[in-house]
Specification:
Blueprint (H helix, E strand, L loop, with lengths): L5 E6 L3 H12 L4 E5 L6 H6 L1 H20 L14 H25 L3 E4 L1 E6 L2 E5 L5 E11 L3 E3 L12 E2 L1 H4 L8 E5 L3 H12 L3 E6 L10 H13 L3 E4 L3 E7 L2 E6 L5 E3 L1 E4 L3 E3 L6 H4 L22 E3 L10 H17 L11 E3 L4 E6 L2 H6 L5 E6 L4 H6 L5 E6 L6 E8 L2 H13 L4 H5 L10 H10 L7
Parallel strand pairs: 1-2, 1-6, 2-3, 6-17, 8-15, 9-10, 9-15, 10-11
Antiparallel strand pairs: 4-5, 5-6, 7-16, 12-13, 13-14, 18-19, 19-22, 20-21, 21-22
Helix pairs in contact: 1-9, 3-4, 3-6
């Protein structure tokens, strides 16, 4: 049992949880954090964002060496894939960063408890470790930041090997001959891109009639054309009814079509909040139909002193969204101030080219009855993109027709994930398209495409 109550106990050491713990400690609180996994960092760092980006980078370099360098006058021969080294590098990146989080906890004097947390009462949490030993921790406030896990699909029999989730897809021991992906969302497309570059045949089955549901439709349509050219096969409007292992092969069934035979299946239809087995019922705390915990504007639940952030509450399941919520939550606890502008939270798909958005899509603005004017600019007309030989895609800016205030920016193209930062800052500060258009952008850079799109909002793009 903890000798004296902590000011704050954070349950979960993912991006939202560990950042909240560190910020609370910086603000002078006595902080503890419970994490059941031996390594800190949560799904994002251990088996999500970071390892997938490591593989995306490595696979892109391999693909460039085998197929993209000749046009630059660089002739190579004898290029071979060393998958074990590629996977080892990915693991090293993860290990280095998880150790870094542990170092930050030590530096900021955050007490770490390893085990599964369960509420016994408000401010009283038991922690059960892997050996079954139980200890009780008391805290004045408790912050739930337990993240999310893969959403299952009836009929799809996960075996942790041939039929698995993103966790298994990060560590296939060999390149699949044929990988079937169930779900054309961010995770499926990123990991599908990895294995397609390394030589796999990739078939993507999607229930909706389009890929990347929820994303701006123009970007999604453009992305599908590009990914199809890259070798991915899409079957849309497909309802998968089952996936089973048959020896060293898999069989995927779906309505209205012949069964698909493959050697690996990746289930990637989305994620659901980790709100089970936390003892929430002992607090009288219920979740909504999606499993999310309702909170107020300051992330406090209906139980005083119990807070929640990140994937366990409503909103997009993004690591940086959880971070911002964690910071806002603990800053409000201490200072009385803390706010997250959800209109200024970007999202990125790390395919090639990258896809990035901030603000609402055209479809969302129309549904909300918000008028807008649009300006777009293609990367094929950008000098830096030409020099990089990466001309697919465009930048699109949506602004209010009366005030010119930037409502949204959508980018598909080279390094879109970096370019979107300017747009997020513009929205955060209430900038107009004119503000972006009249700001000097270095030449030649990809960012000039953002400036040109802003000029195009007023019908005065210069280079097209």
């Amino acid at each position: 049992m903890s000798e004296t109550p902590f000011d704050l106990l954070v349950i979960g050491a993912g991006p939202g949880g560990y950042v909240a713990a560190i910020r609370a400690a910086q603000l002078g609180l006595k902080v503890a954090c419970v994490e059941k996994a031996p390594a800190l960092g949560g799904t994002c760092l251990r088996v999500g964002c970071i390892p997938s980006k490591a593989l995306l980078e490595s696979s892109e370099r391999y693909h460039e060496a085998t197929q993209g360098l000749a046009q630059h006058g660089v002739k190579v021969s004898g290029v071979e894939l060393d998958l074990s080294t590629m996977l080892a590098r990915k693991d090293k990146v993860v290990t280095t960063l998880t150790r870094g989080v542990a170092g930050l906890f030590k530096k900021n004097k955050v007490t770490r408890f390893e085990g599964h947390a369960s509420f016994q009462a408000p401010g009283e949490v038991t922690v059960t470790d892997a050996e079954g030993a139980v200890q009780t921790v008391h805290a004045k406030r408790v912050l739930i930041a337990t993240g999310s896990s893969v959403t299952p699909l009836p009929g799809v029999e996960l075996d942790g090997d041939r039929i698995g989730t993103s966790t298994e897809a990060l560590s296939y021991p060999s390149v699949p001959e044929h990988l079937v992906i169930i779900g054309a969302g961010v995770i499926g497309l990123e990991l599908g891109s990895v294995w397609a570059r390394l030589g796999a045949k990739v078939t993507v089955l999607e229930y909706l009639d389009r890929i990347m549901g929820g994303m701006d439709a123009e970007l999604a349509k453009t992305a599908q054309k590009i990914f199809t050219r890259q070798g991915l096969t899409f079957r849309l409007g497909v309802k998968v009814t089952g996936a089973t292992v048959d020896g060293d092969r898999c069989v995927v069934t779906y309505e209205g079509g012949e069964p698909l035979a493959c050697d690996r299946v990746l289930l990637a239809i989305g994620r659901r909040p980790n709100t089970e087995n936390l003892g929430l019922e002992r607090l009288g705390l219920s979740v909504d139909k999606r499993g999310c915990i309702p909170v107020n504007a300051h992330f406090e639940t209906s139980v005083p002193g119990v807070f929640a952030i990140g994937d366990v509450i409503a909103g997009p399941m993004l690591a940086h969204k959880a971070e911002e919520e964690g910071i806002a939550c603990v800053e409000h606890m201490v200072t009385g101030y803390g706010h997250v502008n959800y209109d200024a939270i970007p999202s990125v798909v790390y395919t090639h080219p990258e896809i990035a958005s901030v603000g609402k899509s055209e479809e969302e603005l129309k549904a909300a009855g918000i008028p807008f004017k649009k300006g777009s600019f293609p990367f094929i007309a950008n000098g830096r993109a030409r020099a990089l030989e990466q001309t697919d895609g465009l930048v699109k800016i949506l602004a209010h027709p009366e005030t010119d205030r930037v409502l949204a920016v959508h980018i598909i193209g080279p390094r879109a994930g970096d370019l979107i930062a300017e747009a997020a800052v513009a929205i955060e500060f209430g900038a107009s398209a004119e503000d972006i258009a009249r700001s000097s952008h270095a030449h030649p850079t990809l960012a000039e495409a953002v400036k040109e799109a802003a000029l195009a909002v007023d019908g005065r793009a210069l280079h097209i």
